[in-house]
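Hi R.,

Here's the chain you asked about this morning:
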Amino acid sequence: MLNICERIDEELTTLQHGDNVFHEALEKVKEGEVRFHVTDKSGRVPDYDLAYTYNMLLFPENVRAIITKMTQGGSVYAPFHSYDENDKDNICLDFLKAFKKIEFEVIDEYSIAVARAALKYTDIDIYYIDDRLEWFVENSDKLHKVESFSNERDKNVLRVTPSPFEMGYTKRDWSTVFSLAAFQNLFFWQSFTEGQKGPFKYVEVVLTQIAGIGGILSYMSMVSNAASTRGLKAFLRPGCTRYPEKLLCKYFRVNPKPDDATEENTITIVDLAVFTTTWFCCQYPASFDESILDDNFAAEMREYAEAVLGGRKALGVLARGTDYITSNLGADRTHARVEQMIPVIREWMEEGGYEKIFLATEDQDNFDQMRKAFPGKIIAISQERMSVADMKKKGTTLIYEFEQKSNQGQEYNDALEDTTVNYFYALYILSKCDAFLCSGQCNGWDTVRSLNGGKFERERKLMVVLEGDPEIEKWKEIRPVTAGMFARGVYPTSKAFFMTSRFDLNEKVDPDAVRKAWDKTLKVYPYMSYAVATRAGKLVLLENDRPFVIEETSEVIEPFERAGNFHTVTFCYLTNTLWIYADHVPFDGTGYERVLETFFYHYYCITDGKEYSVPEGVYTEKDGAVDGTEIDAYQMVDAIDPKVMMAGMGKGDTFVLKECIRDELFLTKEDCRGYCISVPSDEFMNYAKSVKGSPMSLLSVFLARAVERVHPENKLPISTMSPVSVRKVMGNANSLLHQVVHAPYEFKPEDLEKDDATLNGMYRGFLKGFSSEQNIKTLCGVYRGICEGYAKAFAAGALDNVIIETRSGIKPSIGVSYLGTLKTAEYGNRIRMTAFHAMQEKGVMLQVTEIGDHFYIDWYQGFHGEMYAKAMRDLMIEAGMSGAILERVE
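And here is the predicted structure, written out as tokens:
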């Protein structure tokens, strides 16, 4: 792709602006050049640069690695080093004609080519924001300059975006696509013809060793059906799959290579994914019948199916596991787990009156779980199955790798034939069932439906990433998650990103009082009763009437998913300790703290049998539902491109704790350590006042000094990052949502030689400027931009890839989050908050809260060893806080 950029001051090849400038640049790209100056002799267009990126490099590295593995070195985006905008016969204009108008969010080489094709060959109107489009196309009544586009998707509008994850194919929705994807949907034939004009007679399909027999039949059917619209006949390249020709011919009828096929009359599709992911190909899904099978093989399976099903009404279930789990493909290739399939199966069994469930699965764990869930109902082919654990033991992520490591030579060929026959027997029997449920997108889905010929009384393919957990799909939707997308974008979407609070109470925890107090809290904050779920590719809040989990255990019960009854909060207790786990997506620490104030007020009123005076600023059941809990300050301002903020960050070296330098992006609980420094409030505040500091500034200074004490040799700035609530500036004080921006501050080594009063003054001066109304509003716009970007990635099933790519480039951080005072009545000193942290991080994070007459500095770090925590405790004692105590907590 050639991007249009500002001119830089470097000696580069200079091209002349004109209709062919991109083609001229691509010729130079073939010679190794990647950036060019462009000038316009007429002076109408200002000077600019063209910067080249190889198309597959537009994906993050981790995504490319998955694609490379699954295609065995292939691509999903062709390089398009040459193409002909005048070769109308090899431009798929039907794609454009599927829409009533086109909206361009981005202007680059490919969006310009799409616009030119639309103007030249169609009557479709074009809408654009960036007036640089006018540099490359002639004036037309079909061109319309606008200021912005609607946030809502419209199936009749083609929206061309800058996101490489918007392929269209993953959601089978091409109304919003990346500029390269839009271009490829028009010019894909040219990526295969490579400048040849034909006439063509054949299409040669090249598959990989990964393709299973279902894939071979499905892909060949798709290509054959699509190619036939151009009068072309498809055939499979001999020897390109892992199946011997003898085996294929023994059981199936796959088009052989015609004797008269030559390079001149044949279009060769090497990167099949480039073709199969297009809108055009998906208009011609796999469609075949038993004629594709060898007559004897078909007769044997027909007889076997009749014997197995025995005339009974059966529900067919295809539950893929193994390599769909180990390869971690994401998006449309994430399959439903057995526990997610069970409620759908139960509903269908009851409604459809099915007597048996025919289960097809290669995964032993899936098989065992299904038999346990439906005793006496499961029938299945007797075959050797594998498990995820088996695959991991052999160091494999794909079935074909597992097969190759399990057998060699003739044993491998024999095992491959047995597996193939068993697999196809299972698919065939599925096709003879009365209804069909599939765990997700796979070639088995296509094969079964093709063989069935549209006779199923009901059929469904679960798409859990895009549609959510089937068990809660009928729950009422409240609204989309907005600000919470920031939190969702920092940890894998398959896990809840949750806050852990540990409270050590003076008395034994009363679970009945916990339940009653929480019920009263929900009357004040009904927002806390919602579930967070996926609907149509969006993260949304749902009504949730299920009981909250309150369980006697010291183990973690994560909120958000099934273990937590799909709630955003779960409670665990053991003797005097109460753990509260809260999903970080719908609310931040500040909002959560207000909820805890209400909860503890009601809890102690219940346990003590008395009505305490209500602390100022705390809402109770008598107040009813609090107004403004769902106001999002980010939405009060226009979105700003996050690059504005990122441009000034990360420049220059800063100190990184050596303990944090690890290859893992995400840590386990076992990797981490938690500590609590408790200190009497009067001692802490007396010292803060003596150095003219605030709790936030004092904590930040002590943390930087603690690092310096452990590493006196350090000569680099010590960088800290602290969340700052925007509620005061933005006027949404009651909001529970994720409403923070993050303040970065660097303590230079020479600054740490100054006294505490000076350092606190410097930090408070920085924070005052950072918290100015103008800066907060600007950052709210940036955070809105980030959230909207994450929402788009989530909708495309690509957020995890964005998270991994982002995480891989971020240095481990240290920081302080000061949550203020948890307002309580006389019962405050009966509560010790010994832990408050989010998920495991490589760095160090302090979450600080004052409860009763103590500050609790809850310290969580992604490594073992208490040297930094001890250094901070010692600094506090040296500053006159003799009551400072350090303890290890889980």
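One quick note: The two ends are 50 Å apart (CA to CA).

Cheers,
M.
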